[in-house]
Structures are given as C-alpha cells and as structure tokens.
Design brief:
Layout lengths: L3 H14 L2 H15 L7 E5 L2 H15 L5 E3 L3 H11 L4 H9 L5 E5 L6 H13 L2 E7 L5 H5 L4 E5 L4 H20 L8
Helix pairs in contact: 2-8, 3-8, 4-5, 5-6
Amino acid sequence: MKNFLKDYYKDIHNIAFFDSINLQKLEIVKKKITNMPKKNKLIFCGNGGSSATCSHASVDFTKNAKIKSINFNETDLVTCLANDYGYEKWIYKALELYSSKGDILFLLSVSGKSKNLIKAIEYCNKKKIQVVTLTGTLKNNPMMKKNKKGINLFVESKSYNKVEIIHHMYLLSLIDYCIGKTIYPPN
C-alpha cells in the first residue's frame, strides 16, 4: 500500500499522456468546437458519475470558454422522458426537443454499452449531429461501433475510476485549449 497512490497517479499519467491517438483526436474536437457556428451548442450526456462530469463540462464551456453548452441532468427532464418513452429512449427524445443540426453531442460511458447513449447516437446519425464518445474498458464497444461518422476517444484501461478521471481531464483540458490558456479569472 506504500506506493499505491504513486503507482495510481503514474498509471493515469501513462494512460492519458502516452496515447497519441486520443491527443490527435482532441485536436480535431477542439477545431470542431471552435469552428462551430455561434447558433449551435455543445450537448453533454452520461449516466451516473459521467453525468456529473457532463454537468461540470457544460457549465465551464459556457461560463469560461463562452461556448453555448447544455446537459440533460435535470431530474424532471430525465424522469418525465424516461417515464413516457422508456429509459433507453429518454436521451433520444431530449435530443428531438433540444438539438439542432450543427450541434456537437458528447456522450460519456465507461463501458460504452449504455443503451440510452447508443440510441442517442442513432438519432444523431439521422440528423447529422456530430457525436464525440468518451468510453473505456472495452475496445470496439457498441457506442464506438455505432459512431462511425463521429469521433471516439477510448481510454485504454479496465479501471472504472481511472477511465472517469481521464474523461474528466480530457473535457476540462478541451475547455482551456479552446480558451487558449490555463490561467484566467474565475468571473
């Protein structure tokens, strides 16, 4: 246990920073975000802990980077749409209500197997909405397979928390990258 934290953080560093493919894809995502028309927005969706990451990212993109962003974490929205259309289709229905062609949808799932997120990809494929998936644990997971036209960031780890940490880090680093600096006033 003496070296647990040191080894833990070293592993996160190695997974995140020596993955040149994801770093290249993050470059592409940044360009898509900064070239997105002002009328469009970023949309963030995830389940469980990933939904908390989505909330954080959407608020900071809007407040700090001045890029319009939303997430679908309102309890009344989730329960209303899940009750009326089923849990697997609630994000699909939310996208029907809130998305526009030209938006960019970020979907976070450690396993890449979340059926409600897969249905969201199907909707976006029909409506020509760009999708960025952030997944881990299982390479070529169902979300990555469905998102053939989008960008898939895959974290090569079977450690649930390490995957979530790296997803969070990728999104927050994208905010700073879009701003063009890492130190700025909090207002």
